[in-house]
Automatic annotation (TrEMBL):
<dbReference type="GO" id="GO:0008677">
    <property type="term" value="F:2-dehydropantoate 2-reductase activity"/>
</dbReference>
<comment type="similarity">
    <text>Belongs to the ketopantoate reductase family.</text>
</comment>
<dbReference type="InterPro" id="IPR013328">
    <property type="entry name" value="6PGD_dom2"/>
</dbReference>
<keyword id="KW-1133">Transmembrane helix</keyword>
<dbReference type="GO" id="GO:0015940">
    <property type="term" value="P:pantothenate biosynthetic process"/>
</dbReference>
<keyword id="KW-0560">Oxidoreductase</keyword>
<feature type="domain" description="Ketopantoate reductase C-terminal">
    <location>
        <begin position="180"/>
        <end position="299"/>
    </location>
</feature>
<comment type="function">
    <text>Catalyzes the NADPH-dependent reduction of ketopantoate into pantoic acid.</text>
</comment>
<keyword id="KW-0566">Pantothenate biosynthesis</keyword>
<keyword id="KW-0472">Membrane</keyword>
<dbReference type="Pfam" id="PF02558">
    <property type="entry name" value="ApbA"/>
</dbReference>
<dbReference type="InterPro" id="IPR008927">
    <property type="entry name" value="6-PGluconate_DH-like_C_sf"/>
</dbReference>
<keyword id="KW-0812">Transmembrane</keyword>
<feature type="domain" description="Ketopantoate reductase N-terminal">
    <location>
        <begin position="8"/>
        <end position="117"/>
    </location>
</feature>
<dbReference type="InterPro" id="IPR051402">
    <property type="entry name" value="KPR-Related"/>
</dbReference>
<comment type="pathway">
    <text>Cofactor biosynthesis; (R)-pantothenate biosynthesis; (R)-pantoate from 3-methyl-2-oxobutanoate: step 2/2.</text>
</comment>
<feature type="transmembrane region" description="Helical">
    <location>
        <begin position="7"/>
        <end position="25"/>
    </location>
</feature>
Amino acid sequence: MQNSKKTIYIIGAGAIGKALAVFLTQAGKKVVLLRGHVHGITAHVEHIEVELRDGQTAEADIAVSSMDHYPHLDGILVITTKSYGNPQIASFLKGKTGNSPVVLLQNGLNVEAAFTSNAFPEIYRCVLFASSQYTAELRLRFMPASVSPIGVVKGSLENLAAIIETLDNRQLVFKVEETIQPIIWTKAIINSVFNSICPLLETDNGIFYRNQDAQSIARTIIDECIGVAANEGILLDADQVVKQLLLISKTSEGQLISTYQDLLHKRKTEIETLNITIAAIADQQHKKELTRNTLLLGKLIQLKSAITMPA
Ligand SMILES: NC(=O)C1=CN([C@@H]2O[C@H](COP(=O)(O)OP(=O)(O)OC[C@H]3O[C@@H](n4cnc5c(N)ncnc54)[C@H](OP(=O)(O)O)[C@@H]3O)[C@@H](O)[C@H]2O)C=CC1
Ligand SMILES: CC(C)(CO)C(=O)C(=O)O
């Protein structure tokens, strides 16, 4: 089947999954939105609206269902769930997806592990440079910062180019990235800053762009984390990482980082794949002292989460 005719199964009906479903439907693609952690729902249509930066609204009717309705999924699988759901999703989908490629649109380090260890034939990793937030149950506000690169975890650049053509839309723009690991690390470091500091200060993403003191704490975390990345053979420039952080801060001013949204809604956060994982990697490198502040911020988020979550 030609890639452009393939069904795109978006798994995870959250802020990113719903916005992408609208953009792809508007671009004329065949889209099914599948719930990430809910099974047995009645297939139905939802009218979803997305507020865009220019004051326009993108909207579409989206077919919503759950994975258990599909004994076989043949198409492109785009995973937009929270990454801690990956082990359950990978084991549920194992053996049901044939040669369908899996594209992960998630934050964090090593989030693809559940799919690689379950031998999915093609796995691609997207680093999202966009922000999406609910403003009502079926309404979102979407703000792109820049193009979102996708790289190969397992597969080929040729197949990736065809996948990106299928995912082509005007709002959430993707590009092929030959060397994705430095970008995955850069974004994980940026998220380790945003996803800890913003919820602790109970403020929006614009804080680093607005406030010099917040920016200087961000720099401390970035310096720590790029030391860990360097020990893994990933060489990053701290000034460049700060520049990207400030661009995201400016372009998503007013938006709340996903971890802050999770805490407000008493949901589990993804901090384990950010500060906590980077600190664990430093520990494996016998360089625990490198991530003292990064780990402390991660632990404060874990504590805030434990205090706010219902027992
Ligand atoms: N929102 C944003 O601005 C950005 C988000 N990201 C990343 O994109 C990914 C999706 O984020 P976002 O859409 O904001 O998240 P949301 O919390 O809005 O939605 C995530 C979806 O994950 C699913 N989910 C939650 N818990 C589990 C679980 N235990 N098992 C399986 N699935 C689960 C749910 O799917 P369902 O309801 O269908 O069951 C939920 O709707 C995350 O990795 C996030 O870090 C990256 C950049 C920006
Ligand atoms: C930093 C940001 C806004 C960039 O996409 C993000 O990753 C998030 O909201 O989770």
